[in-house]
Design a protein that fits this description.
This protein has about 90 residues and is of the alpha+beta class. It contains two helices and seven strands; from the N terminus they run E-H-H-E-E-E-E-E-E. Helix 1 runs antiparallel to helix 2. It starts with a strand and ends with a strand. It binds zinc ion.
C-alpha cells in the first residue's frame, strides 16, 4: 500500500460549484488525502479506497459515478462506493 499524499482541494471546489447541495460528496472528496494505489492499466488514476470483498457479489450495488467538468471542458469522473466513500477520481 502506498502512502502518497493527495490534495483534493481542486476537486472539492468543483463539486461545491457543480453539486452545491451534495454535502456528502464534498465531505467524501475532502477526505481523499491519501492515495492507496494508482491504477495499474497505465492511466495513473488515483484510488483512495477499495471496495470491500463482500460488496463485490454479483448483485452488489456498485455505488455511483459523478461527472464533474474542469475549466476548459475537460471531464472527470468520481467513482463512489456504496458506503459513500470515494473509490477513485478519473480524468
Ligand atoms: Zn486505469
Amino acid at each position: 500500500m502506498s502512502d502518497e499524499r493527495y490534495d483534493p482541494t481542486w476537486v472539492v471546489d468543483l463539486a461545491r460549484r457543480q453539486y452545491p447541495d451534495d454535502r456528502r460528496l464534498h465531505d467524501a472528496l475532502a477526505s481523499c488525502t491519501r492515495v492507496v494505489r494508482r491504477c495499474d492499466c497505465g492511466c495513473d488514476t488515483p484510488y483512495f479506497a477499495e471496495p470491500s470483498p463482500d460488496s463485490m457479489g454479483e448483485d452488489s450495488d456498485f455505488g455511483m459515478r459523478i461527472a464533474l467538468q474542469r475549466e476548459g471542458g475537460h471531464k472527470i469522473v468520481v467513482d463512489l462506493l456504496p458506503d459513500g466513500r470515494v473509490a477513485c477520481i478519473e480524468g
